[in-house]
Amino acid sequence: MRRSRARTFRLEADLDDAIEEISKNERVSLNQVANKALKRYVEWDMAPSNRGLVSVPSMLLVKLMAAQSEEKARALGKWAGRELFLPNLQAGHPTGSLEDAERLMRMLAAYGSRFTFDHSIGRGKHIMTIGQKMGRNWSAYYAGALETIFERFLGKPLRATMTDNMCVVEFRM
Amino acid sequence: MNLVVGRALRRLVEWDKVAENAGLVVISPVTLSKLMGSLTVEQAEALGESIGDEVWMPIVLSKYGEVTLVSTLDSIDLISRYMGRFEFHRTAEGTKNVVTVRHGGGSKWSAFYLGAAKSIFKKHLGLDFVHHASEELVTIEFDAENIEETR
User: Do B85 and A59 touch (CB under 8 A)?
Assistant: First the structure.
């Protein structure tokens, strides 16, 4: 069981009213409301690797990516894996292990809202899956990114498989 | 410590529900620029207009319950503070209003924001405006009643 500590804070009255209303509407305790907000702030908003990221409507990304060819989308994913994900991984986790990469991927999935991420291991085989709902070219983008990211750990080429809504990489360590 | 907790809770109260309703997702600005870079200026403006229609207006309605000049300006201010895409300024002198969106993203992003302004201010609010667009910003000028009195 996770340890907890009691703290006392002074809140502006309108903020106090607003979180009380959220607590009532969502039928959760004030503690849960406050912890959810603080957890996000600590894990995501303040993480060095996430500073500078921006929020945009998913519809904008759907339309922008639809204007690309599948090959260009995959190449952009490879670029993002090489130039954005791996340097961010190094910046936040100097050892940059496979576990660190998986943790960063889960964080992007949980707070970035663009995709879901799953990792399963069976008989020594790793299966990494990204699910998304923004069109086939986004699957191609994630395929390119996953190939680049996990090739770094394997030291050999990797080919992701993809559908309109997901892409998968399988490998043995 | 109060400041940290206040900031985290303020974001939850002011923004998280809006972001969820509007289907907002997170991306690197560099990737976004690369995607926008592949469009023509005309395509970027049309995209801005469709995002104004299909995303912006529902955000204003879900957050404020009505689409008025006041709620629209408040929504632009809110979005500029939390989305991290642009800075928003408004000045008013009598009935003359000047709205500036400073994005620093180049001519295609200016075309995008101009398209969004056409959707929001012309189509939905019925306000005619004159505009100025550069690589860095878009400015629109329009006449409207003294809106501070309607707040």
Answer: no
**A57, B84: Cβ pair inside 8 Å?**
no
Locate the domains of chain A by residue range.
13-46, 58-172
For residue A161, give how far its alpha carbon lies from the nearest alpha carbon of chain B (Å).
Answer: 23
* Cβ–Cβ gap A57/B13 under 8 Å: no
Mean pLDDT, chain B, rounded, equals 89
pLDDT at A108 over 70: yes
pLDDT at A50: 66
Quote the Cα angle for B96-B137-B50, to 5°.
90
Mutation site for A-interface testing, chosen from B12, B51, B87 by largest number of A Cβ within 10 Å: B12
Residues of chain B found within 8 Å of residue A80, distances taken between Cβ atoms: 28, 31
In chain B, the domains with their CATH numbers are 2-150 (3.90.1520)
Residue (of B38, B31, B103) closest to A108 by Cα position: B31
Q: Is the whole-model pTM more than 0.80? A: yes
pLDDT single digits (tens) A36-72: 888 888 777 776 666 678 889 999 999 999 999 999 9
Q: Across-strand partners of A6? A: none
Q: Tokens representing A95?
A: 């050892």
**Is B5 in contact with A84 (Cβ distance < 8 A)?**
no
Return the pLDDT at A31.
87
How many whole angstroms separate alpha carbon B4 and alpha carbon B11?
11
Torsion of CA A2, A130, A74, A84, to 10 degrees: 0
Q: What is the ipTM of this complex?
A: 0.86
Instruction: Provide the edge-to-edge strand list for the sheet that holds B87-93.
Output: B87-93, B96-102, B137-143, B130-133
A22 touches chain B (CB under 8 A): yes
